Predict the structure.
Amino acid sequence: MIPKLRIVPLGGLGEIGKNMTAIEFGEQIILIDAGIMFPENDMLGIDTIIPDYSYLDDKFDKVLAVLITHGHEDHVGALPHLMQDIDAPIYATPLTLGLIEGKLRGANLLHTVDLRTIEAGDIFNVGSFKIEPFHVAHSIPDCVGFGITTPVGLIVHTGDYKFDHTPADGWPPDFAKLAEFSNRGVLALLADSTNSDKPGWTPSENTIAEGFDEVFRNAQGRIIIATFASLISRIQQVADTAVRHGRKMAIIGRSMRTNTKIARELGYLNIPDDIVVDIDIATKMPPSKVVIMATGAQGEPSAVMGRIANGRHRNLSVQEGDTIVFSAHAIPGNEEMVYRTINRLYQRGATVLYDKIANVHVSGHASREEMKLMINLIRPKFLIPVHGEIRHLKLHGKLGVELGIPEENIAIVENGTPLELAPNQLTICPRMPGGYIFVDGSGVGDIGWPVVRDRDKLAQAGYFFVVVTASPKGKVIGKIEIRTRGFVDNNSTEELLMDAEDVIIRTLENAGGKDEGIERRVEQAVSRFLYDETRRRPIVQVVIK
Amino acid sequence: MIPKLRIVPLGGLGEIGKNMTAIEFGEQIILIDAGIMFPENDMLGIDTIIPDYSYLDDKFDKVLAVLITHGHEDHVGALPHLMQDIDAPIYATPLTLGLIEGKLRGANLLHTVDLRTIEAGDIFNVGSFKIEPFHVAHSIPDCVGFGITTPVGLIVHTGDYKFDHTPADGWPPDFAKLAEFSNRGVLALLADSTNSDKPGWTPSENTIAEGFDEVFRNAQGRIIIATFASLISRIQQVADTAVRHGRKMAIIGRSMRTNTKIARELGYLNIPDDIVVDIDIATKMPPSKVVIMATGAQGEPSAVMGRIANGRHRNLSVQEGDTIVFSAHAIPGNEEMVYRTINRLYQRGATVLYDKIANVHVSGHASREEMKLMINLIRPKFLIPVHGEIRHLKLHGKLGVELGIPEENIAIVENGTPLELAPNQLTICPRMPGGYIFVDGSGVGDIGWPVVRDRDKLAQAGYFFVVVTASPKGKVIGKIEIRTRGFVDNNSTEELLMDAEDVIIRTLENAGGKDEGIERRVEQAVSRFLYDETRRRPIVQVVIK
């Protein structure tokens, strides 16, 4: 009996099948991508999130390959962590591999990991799998999807894609290869659902050239363009526009500088040497002769645009006449930060352009009509929407039904839900426990929701800490020490603190002695008192000596 | 010499001139609106925000009237607080006054405040001001703007408006009155800038009827529609659609029930008695025969939709076949919560429709073409964009320039910036300090940014609390007590805590005694140690007995 093919999207809530997917046949596993997620607003203090791959814990030795679709953080950011557990080669295209090398070097893993360069159009075998990377267009060059011929059938994974006929790097997606897969017969299509709520066709990267031309024509002073550090295509377009309009270009922001350097060295960014200048030179040039590219398009306070907006950047401050362009779309959850940054830049005298009011950004993902084309090009037996929240997957699934795929052949699942494929059957297995691995400071996975929930309580109302010495009979000796932060303003609380001391003294006296549960009981009495007085619930802790 | 007219938008950052505006002439002040703001994501633990009106502190007795444009929270929510300080009548239209009464009753102020009913089209005098409320269309009935004839000239304040020819209540805006103002000559126009980044014309409330008809035609099971509690127009439309499609209607959510009751009593909501049912009846009826309206369209976890999404609502849980409609737009900063709620409802088996994928919401504010019409109808000498963030005001100002208003006649200012108007002159005065008054629990204005910043620190990495008894020479006596929350997982920290104890003992020994700054020095040593070990920065507090 042939074992079934298992497809397991790994991770927590958030986008499904985005960051890491396991494809498993018997004793052989290949992984597609190993990216990080960014914390939501209520995951307090968390830096980044690694998908929970504990599904692999007892199977690390069965992993034969890690296939990477492209070099964005949400597809490669978890590699430094994953590759400490897994001894298998990473397969990626040259630019993607260049970006991965930097990450592995930072984690001291560069010399222990086997990196293998692939090109779109290659065909190679890994165990029982035949792998065929194919070129797709996205907002970073050198992206691929994968055709994976398994003993059960051919699987096609699109990666992040859009059907851009005129991408910034001039390399349109490989329609012929998709048609060829289709002719061979595709068992399952795993396809990007990001924009399944966007009607029509995503505009080409090329359309931004016009928007940029208009910005450059109208700007009297300096132009500062913020975008994602990894949006290599956008950097190319700014460079092209700078050449057309006779401006020099400077780049600030460490990650963007690093990525640009790698992409230029590998030939994926074509920027003439003579237009590149250092930021210190750029700020001394006539304003109409420079364009500056910067990180921080999501309004992150610590990135370049955030620091400029707060007047805290070392090399660059806003001056009257500056035109600042946010060439990015605010990721849900970041809108407030983005708009606050924009408001602050306006306050400092800049003119600010962003995607809502100027043609300065397009999505890197397919819209509904492209998603239809992908389904009809591939004509899969089974459709597995991935890359999106549940709502996106549902809409993608519905679209599949509209195109004639039977509803029972479409699998909409959450991360952690294994799918079993036989040549004529798709089974959805029960979801496994697990979800996120939080990265906080130097800790990876050492804290979970209980700590985050405590942080949320502290964020709501701070803490109230009591240290009291008491006699065995419960009589308070000496001074009661109270420390509080994040609860009330320290200048206006003398009466509240005195009343709290009374509550502590009374509770201890009534208890008549220092038994096991006394600290807890005093905490409860103090909590109740503070809530009655303020309608706030700080975390109360009492130490009785 | 005639004193100058002063216009002072009050409040902090955020939307300018939205929540409260003072109009001052010599010893006479009138206020327009008294609303609250909602906290941004980084204003941790804050419930609501009242605009800082300390500008009025020494002038409370000069306030002659509080004019209210309409009954939304961001225009009336601060009245219970303001009316404790001010002894002047509130002027509002019947529905607005009905909603205000409920608020004042809750604050025990109903019998001490002088409430005066006005109607659009009225003309009345307050001190040297002649006030003319005029009807505008918005997403709640009975909205007005104000024409205010002052000794310096005629001021027109639009309030929140859209030029809706077919509003839900059938009462279009009073174009004739605007033209009449224009003929008299308008000194300054204060106009809504909310949608100054939206091209074209905001669709009529009426267009939603079609969208709702489609939802009702397609839904096999129950329909649940979430919107703002104060979006009275939307409630009317759902009721109308329910009548057309033969469904009964139930309402859940305290604030929406209260608002509906008031609006029905006053004749602003026309819902036949026989279609209204209680929620307990609704849940027992055939699913295809009911529509349920609910609060929580912003994804607030404590409102009805949030509780349904989490499976924690007393009366209502999602069942297969439910169609849930979010008839609202996510306010910037709320997107993440809204989408999470939608995802959870999908998980529970509902079909969810929202503004991006169905025609179920329109904005209550004018878009750019309407803003142009307003300016050209009024033909003001001076344009003062209000109701929007700085970016919106700037775009509104630019639009005024396009229409021929000289740039120097347009004032774009932040809240707290007085504008002085003479018949031929507009002066922008220096901005006053101040901004927000935070409401947290029962406290109003008792905490400010320092407490919120402490909460942010606690949210990032929690606290680490140490209680130690030491001899006068600095020798530790007995057990060191450590309490920590929100910092590390308590099950995995034994070694860290033991090492921290060593740091405490060493620091105390090295100090050689319990001098004044010893607690601070131990705190610094512990902080440094914890950061080195974990790259996290909890708030460290040390009490030495």
